[in-house]
Structure formats: structure tokens, C-alpha cells
Amino acid sequence: MNRYVWLALVALGLLAPFAVYPVFMMKLLCFALFAAAFNLLLGYTGLLSFGHAAFFGGAAYVTGHLVKNLGLTPELGILGGTLFAGLLGYLVGSLAIRRQGIYFAMVTLALAQIVYFLALKLPFTGGEDGLQGIPRGLLFGLIDLNRHVTVGSTPLPLSLYYFTFALFCLGFWVIYRAIHSPFGQVLKAIRENEPRARSLGYKVERFKLIAFVLSSALAGMAGAMKCLIFQLASLTDVSWHTSGEVVLMTLLGGVGTVLGPSAGAFTVVTLQSQLTMVGPWITVIIGGIFVVCVLVFRRGFVGELGRLLRRSL
Amino acid sequence: MGMSFQTVMSQVMLGLNNGVFYAILSLGLAVIFGLLNIVNFVHGALYMLGAYVALLGFTMLGPLLGRPDFHLNYWAALIVAPLVVGALGVLIEKTMLRRLRKFDHLYGLLLTFGLALIIQGVFTNYFNVSGDAYDGKPEVLSGVVDLGFMLFPKYRVWVIGISLVVCFSTWFVIERTKLGSYLRAGTENPELVKAFGINVPLMITLTYGFGVGLAAFAGVLAAPIYSVSPVMGSEMIITVFAVVVIGGMGSIMGSILTGLLLGMVEGFTKVVYAPASGTVIFLIMVIVLLVKPAGLFGKEA
């Protein structure tokens, strides 16, 4: 894609907190990264994980525990959460890649359920309440992430926002590099025709596992960020609803497109915040979007746009 | 450890009681998977729907019809709920699943996941998540039976008995009758079966309707035991998925036996180490994936 488009997007990201409610923007960035990480598996490797909330939420819990109970600085907390998610991804991935297609989805869903049980039962997780009141702390021991800068008359949490944005860019860049590397080409070959990739001498299992670990670690980073922003790690973060939501975001935006998951995350997060008045009906709406998407809109927004412009976005 | 024979047996029997639900549900999933090649995520929600047909038929149908003293009784619910849910299944297959046949199987999973969210969402809006009790249990089935080694609720004996009858009849029809041979042939090679003049699309629709009808039947059976709640299906379906991964969806008998066995193992775990009883099925799944990745009854994909 054109470098000016990228520059424009980065500029948009830098200016966003002055135009849009910053907490909303940060939530968006978290879910956009989460969906992009998920898309690395579904879109570029052809693996449907139905348990990605385990990495997102698991990392949120670990980061919360490190920062709140052990007093670590936020960057170490996020690093810890990300590493934990990567390790968990290694365990889950090693098991799940033993089965194909539909079974893969069921295995990941079931394994994620174990993580959910742990989040409910382990002593440091706060049970039904989750971990609340997680402090944001001092970044590198220097920068106060709680600091608000008053612009006009509104105080904006700019340090937290730019920290989040920087992490998002880092994660997104890693994914972009992975997709456009020889490694990414092998992943796509596996997606298109696994036996053929195997016959060409690629160790398919190893590639799948690396993709899985990378995807889960980055999903974990998104969860760790979310935990600092909302100062909360909750059972919702590890539940199958969240696993389903990230599937929807990716599907809606466009499976296997670079910008699709972000567009999907934007749509779903906006819907959720705009439709608070419908209360629990939001589940029905989300389900409805799912059905419509699968039936008539399988390419997603960005996929359709890409088809219109005849280029891959 | 104070593990008396009585305690172990009573937990194993209660486990078997859960096991028959796993068996009916995973059987339905296997039947649907065989012919439609999709994992029916909405199965749990339709199981829940079956329980609600029984509950609402008992409490609300009468007042709704202007005859407050009318109750859809339990026996009627056992027939009506599968028919209602089966009809809904036919509708789902004809209007939606049919269009996905030429696409990746994963889309079927995603579509039915969306449907599950819709159904569960609607019920969450009208009913309490903590659940309602079903009061329509027939008089004949209350009380206990002396099994010789323990006293066991009569209703649970009935549930185990009728479930086994339903499961093995389904097995018999599919594996031992002419109709079943069409189904099995359709699983292997639908084009060829079509060439023999068999209406394969109709067969697929009815199979789906039958599979989800089984789920509703299980839902009615469950209503007097567990509280009827909007989330009863989603809790169940994830466990049943693990059961299906353990057993493999390739074999009807395999899914029945795996369901029964895992229910009993779960019950036994309650005696040995209660905190693990919620996760033991998932842990067994991990072990099976390590030792026999294709599943106990599965063929290597």
C-alpha cells in the first residue's frame, strides 16, 4: 500500500484523541490489535481459533496481577502479560494443530474454557469480580500514565493514549512484517493448499505453531493494554463471547486483509458504545450481524473495497 | 479418604445422568456433521429452546390461549418441543445453511454461532439468567427407586433409560436400516446417491431437523433436573464440543459411548477431587490429543 496512506493513518492516530473521546479510541486500538493478531491466523494461515479470548484475557489477568499485586511498572507488566500469552499460545497451539479445520476450532474453544475456569478459581484472580482497580503506574518509572493534559477545557489522558498508540503501531508493524515476509508467504501457501506446502518440503506444523504463538502473544499484548486502560481484568475478557467477538470483527472488516480487522473492530466497538440503550439486545444484534456477514458479506468491508479497487488492502 | 462404595456409585450414577445428555447432544452433532459437514454451534441454544418450550408450554401457553388452567404437560412437551425445534431447524437449513454448502465448512460454524447468539440473546432479555424451575414433572416419575446399592430419584432413572433407548434407536436406524444406508451413502458421496434418484437435499434438510430435534428432546428431559436458564445451552455446548473432539464425529456409536463414559468419569472425579470435576473432560481432551490425535473413534483426517 501507498506510503502516504500509512502516513495519513498514523497522523490520524496521533490527532485522534483531540477529536474523539480518548478512552473510546484506546479501546478501539486494543481491539484492532487483537483482531489483527487473530487475522494472522484466520486470514493468513487459514486456522480458525475460537479461543483467542484466553490469550487476550489471560494476559490481562497476568498484567493486572504483576502491576497491582507485585508492584511492577506498566511496561514490565505488559511484557509479562505478552510473554505469558505467547507461552500459553505455545501450549494451546501445540495441541490444537494436531487436528484440522473444524476440530481445530473446537479444540481451541475447549482449551480456552480451561483458562476461563482458572480465571474463575485461582486465588489471585478475584473470582467473579475479576481484578479491579489496577494502577496504571509510572512508565519506565518516569512517566505518569494517569497524567491528564488539559486542552481547551477538557483534560485528556495523553500519556496513556500515546503509549497505547505506540504499542498498537509496534504490534501492527510486527504483523505487517510477518505477513509480507517469506515466512508469511509460506503461511499463505499452507492456507491455500496444505498438502502441497508439505510436499514442497515445508515443515507445516512448525509454521502453524510459530504463527499461533505470534498471534497469541500479540493478542495478549492487546489484552494487557486493555487491562491498564480500563484498570480491570474481568471474566468477560476470557469468555467465549470475547472469542466470538474477535472473529466477528475480523470477518466484518475482511478476513485476510491488512486493514480489515481494524475496520471491523472500529465498527463493532462503535456499535457497542452507541447501542448501550438497547441493553442485552446487543447480543442479538451482534448475532444478527454475524449471520448476515456469513450469508452475504463474506469478504467484509475492506475485502469488498479491495475488490472494487482491484488491489489488496 | 472416606470413599464408600455408596458415595462412588451415587456420583457415578449422577455422572451417567449427565452423560446421557452429552451422548444425545454429541450424537446429534455427529449426525449433522456426517451429512452437512458443519459443526452445529446452535445445538446448545436449541437444547435450551427445547427446555423453554416445556417450561413455557406448562406456565404460559394456557393463559396465552385464554384458558389459564391449561398446561402443556410433560409427555406432550417431549413430543411438541422436538417438533417445534425440528421445524425451526428445517427453516434454518432451507434458508441459510443451504446457501453455504459450496463454501468452506468454517462458515457453517460461524453462521450457527451467530444464530446461537441471537437465540440466547432473546431469551436473556426475557428470562432470568439464574434460571426458572420447571414444575411440570409428572407424578409417576417423582420419588425414588431402590437400586439395591442406593436410592436413586425415579426421574433420573427415567431420563437415563429413555435417553439410552433414543440413542440406540438412532444408531440402529442409521447403521442397520435401508433409510440409514441412504444417509451413510449420502455422507460418503452425495452426487452418486443423487444419481440413484434419491432426493439428497430433502434428506439433508430432514437430517438437520432430526439432529436439532434430538437436542430439544434432551432439553425437555433436562428441564425438571436443572433450572431452565438462557445460558444452559452455551455451558453445555462447549463441554459437548470437547466430548466430540475426544470421540471423533465419524462414528455414531463412538459419540454415544464417549458421552456416557465421560459423564461417568466426571461424576467419579467429583468423589476423588471435586474442584477438578468442571475441567476433567477438557483435561481428558488434552490427553487424547497427545496420545491419539484423531480421537478415540476417529479416522485420521
Description:
The complex is a heterodimer of chains A (313) and B (301). Chain A has 14 helices and 6 strands. With 313 residues, chain A is mainly alpha-helical. Chain A has one domain (19-238). Chain A has a two-stranded antiparallel ribbon with strand order 1-6. In chain A, strands 2-3 form a two-stranded antiparallel ribbon. With 301 residues, chain B is an all-alpha fold. Chain B has one domain (20-230). Chain B has a two-stranded antiparallel ribbon with strand order 1-2. In chain B, β1 and β2 (151-153) form a beta hairpin. In chain B, α2 packs across α9 (200-222). The longest helix of chain B has 32 residues, at 5-36. Chain B starts with a helix and ends in a 10-residue tail after the last helix. The chains are: A mainly alpha (313), B mainly alpha (301). The A-B interface holds A 48, 50, 95, 98-103, 105-107, 109-111, 113-114, 117, 121, 240, 244, 247, 251, 279-284, 286-291, 293-295, 298 and B 33, 38-39, 96, 99-100, 103, 105-107, 109-111, 113-122, 124-125, 234, 238, 241-242, 244-245, 275, 278-279, 282-283, 285-286, 289-290, 293-294, 301.
How would you summarize the topology of this molecule?
The complex is a heterodimer of chains A (313) and B (301).
Chain A lengths: L2 H17 L2 H21 L10 H17 L4 H23 L4 H21 L9 E2 L5 E2 L3 E2 L4 E3 L2 E3 L1 H22 L2 H11 L1 H6 L4 H27 L1 E2 L1 H4 L1 H14 L6 H15 L6 H16 L3 H10 L4
Antiparallel strand pairs in A: 1-6, 2-3, 4-5
Helix pairs in contact in A: 2-6, 2-9, 2-11, 2-12, 3-4, 3-5, 3-9, 4-5, 4-9, 6-9, 7-9, 11-12, 11-13, 11-14
Chain B lengths: L4 H32 L6 H17 L1 H4 L9 H22 L9 H22 L17 E3 L4 E3 H23 L1 H11 L1 H6 L4 H23 L9 H16 L4 H21 L7 H12 L10
Antiparallel strand pairs in B: 1-2
Helix pairs in contact in B: 1-6, 1-9, 1-10, 1-11, 2-4, 2-5, 2-9, 2-10, 4-9, 6-7, 10-11, 10-12
